[in-house]
Amino acid sequence: MKAIGNYLLIKDISENTKKTSGGLELTDKHEDIRYKKGVIISSGPDAVKPDQKILYDKVAGHDVEYNDEIYKVIALKDVVAIL
Fold it and tell me: How far apart are CA 39 and CA 50, in angstroms?
């Protein structure tokens, strides 16, 4: 699978989570943090490259399943930093 145009195919970088007795998963960090970490799997022809780690808006894009793996497709405009 390959991203085209101004889209990125990324994999979330998991944060440490704790499960509550009610079944909710909570991260160690405050829930008001707007951005998540991800690693680029594929990108269109722009400034970011595969294997770069990024910060992106956590409400951006959508999940896709491919070869039993879950990826996220986001727009380049949703990337706020390269780590």
Answer: 8
Residues in the chain, pLDDT under 70 = 15-19, 24-32
- Give the amino acid at 24: L
Which 8-state DSSP code applies to residue 24?
-
* Domains in the chain: ranges and CATH: 7-16+30-82 (2.30.33.40)
- How far are the Cα atoms of 25, 64, 66, 79 from residue 34, in angstroms, in the given order? 17, 21, 26, 12
Query: 54: buried, middle or exposed (CB in 10 Å: 19+, 13-18, 0-12)?
Result: buried
